[in-house]
Amino acid sequence: MGVLMSKKQQVEKVQKCSAVVSAFKEGLKDRPPQARCPENTGEPEDKSVERPAAPAPSGKEEDEGQVQEGSKQASTSQQASASLKEEDNRINQEAWSRLRDGKGVEPEDLDKANQLTRPAFVRPKRDAGDDQPVDIALGQREQPVNDEMCEICEVWTADDLFPCRSCSRVFHDGCLREMGYLGTSALKEMREAAHTATGWSCYYCDNVNLLLTDEEMHSLTETFKECKIIPESCLGSDEFLQYKNFLSKQLFEKDLMDEKEEEMLAQFSALDPEKRGQIEWTDFLYHESLEVLKKFRSQNSLVRLLTAKERDRARSVFLSLDQDKDGLVLSGETRKAQQSWFQKNTKETQSCNVSISHVGPISENSPASSASEKSREKTSITSGKDDNRQLSWPEFLKESAIFILAARPNSPAVHLRPL
């Protein structure tokens, strides 16, 4: 037993010595070079002898200290710059994520603490027979009836409900406000327009970007990123032309021709009805969304996107143009009808019972008439050759479908200018 205790004591002593030696070595490593003890020469240390003071740091050491201080400041500056860049990336990422819901912008004048939960938007999927012809009879009016209850709160309150001009949904103005879909100024415009002949589009129909499938939206988003276009930003004419030139190089491997540039500038003017020299993000997004539909969808597919109200309005316009009742209209008249889709609400309060067949050509002070005179002259020369082409009702509807969809947004901008 005594032997065992002795061995245990020896082991403990060895462990303690090892710990002390290790701690001593670590302490030596942490000390600065000038503070190290002199090497042991075997002579006893004479404490009575004063040791010489440590030499002052040389100029080289001072320079090294300044370099270290400068590197610390540079590191701090880099960290601040990286933090700002990270914040910008976060903001841009949030904008891109909001683009999933069609606009990519925050609602205006919205108290988020009291905001009701919005429904999730689900992008459409194309069916196998989406490109097949669809039979829409000319003589059979659909006369769609508006819903009886508010789309948001599902409560019926008769005259306090505001209908959408494109679909059958109806809404309370208070519900639209609490959901954050409309700000104060937009609500006022809605109240003035909803019960007129021109009408008002609800947040589903107003946002034509929601007509794109996930694949189409992904393609559009990637193009925006390649051109460094950030959601929520306004575009000037130079940026708009630069973007269109990029698309031309991507599709045709060449820049826009002069004539095509004039068409793009005329479209820019139509998107900027107030002549501010820039177009809003949502107007640009809607224009590009319609361009995607025009590029990737067949005319039959576009006709399938029309609502019953829009088909009824198209019937009224066709019948008003078919004066001799032979079931045919001229392409020149069709072009004027396409322009008439963009007739905006006037200040006169018209009853919604007024026949929508009284849709005339575009007025001189309408947004679509804001294109340059030179561009309009060229358009009239080139389109005049085709003005006498006769169109049947199905052909009229197929050629007009994209322009009917382009007329859905409430914005005064013309998102797809008829040529």
From TrEMBL:
The keyword Nucleotide-binding does not apply. Pfam families: zf-RING_15. Keywords: Metal-binding, Zinc, Zinc-finger. GO terms for molecular function: transcription corepressor activity; zinc ion binding. GO terms for cellular component: cytoplasm; nucleus. Residues 84-112, 373-388 have a biased composition (Basic and acidic residues). Residues 71-83 have a biased composition (Low complexity). The keyword Endoplasmic reticulum does not apply. Residues 25-133, 354-388 are annotated as: Disordered. PROSITE patterns: ZF_PHD_1 (PS01359). This is PHD finger protein 24.
